[in-house]
Amino acid sequence: MKRLLLTISLCAMVIGAMAADLPKQGFGFQIGYAQPTLRLNSPEVMYPKDSLVNTVQLHGLKVGVVYDGSFALGFGTSIGINYTFATKTTGWQPASSFSRYPETRSSLMYHQVEAFVDWQYKFEIAKETYLMLYTGPTIQCGIGLTEKHETRIDLSNLNMSTKEDRYTSDDPNSVLRRINVTWGVGAGFQYKRYFLRGGYDFGLINPYKNPQFTNVITGASMDRNTRGRLDQWEIKVGMYLWYR
User: Fold this and answer.
1) Whole-number Å distance between alpha carbons of 199 and 196
2) 10 or 199: which carries more pLDDT confidence?
3) Is 143 among the domain residues?
4) How far, in Å, CA of 197 to CA of 134, rounded?
5) Could you tell me if residue 17 is inside a domain?
């Protein structure tokens, strides 16, 4: 009986400590910087590996809403929905190594909605001040991806006006899958209602629809496998509007 009473008392003490240590819950918004990174690695034994590795980094804005809650002893979850807008524009470059004319540049514009679930641990370093570590999956849905190429002929050296020809390329959505899944790791800081989070999401699936490159002229499949990842750097600041 004494052992039973002791066990019940210890359980009650643990449950009480867990309840007392339960941090506040909150619902708010976040905004920050995002860097979607599209990686392409298509090995083929006839060519050096480095020549077939390509990385495209876009830069943009991320906004969203987030719910933050804890289960016990600082362990909890953070869930929410984000919208990401990112772009990339190259500088003007000669179309040929033998001539400056014409010059070309390209631009990408990307829109994405994502739902995330992060498991986190918060530990208090001062009154209402926390450090946090988190990890978890994100489902990304690309809602728009456009690519534009521009060509110009610079006639300034001949005292003539500059001519620019603009056109839009084929829809890149025909190459990339609309849905992507990532796994992220990150760290953060919270003071009262305000927080800062930053981390990296690793792509878990091949974002390319086609398993092989296709010759743009003949349409025939080439001997290079198409695989890669869609990763993302991000850093966000936010505030809880409801916090208790």
Assistant:
1) 11
2) 199
3) yes
4) 9
5) no
- The Cα-based distances of 26 to 21, 69, 73, 105, 198 in angstroms read 16, 7, 17, 45, 19
Instruction: Give the 3-state secondary structure of residue 193.
Output: coil
For 219, the 3-state DSSP assignment is: coil
Domain that holds residue 234: 25-243
CATH number at residue 60: 2.40.160.20
pTM: 0.75
Write out the DSSP string of 138-149.
EEEEEEEEEEEE
170-195 tens-digit pLDDT: 455 567 888 999 999 999 999 999 99
Q: C-alpha 222: how far from its chain's center? A: 30
Structurally, how many domains does the chain consist of?
Answer: 1
Q: Is the residue at 108 inside a domain?
A: yes
What is the model's pLDDT at position 138? Answer: 97
pLDDT more than 70, % of the chain: 66
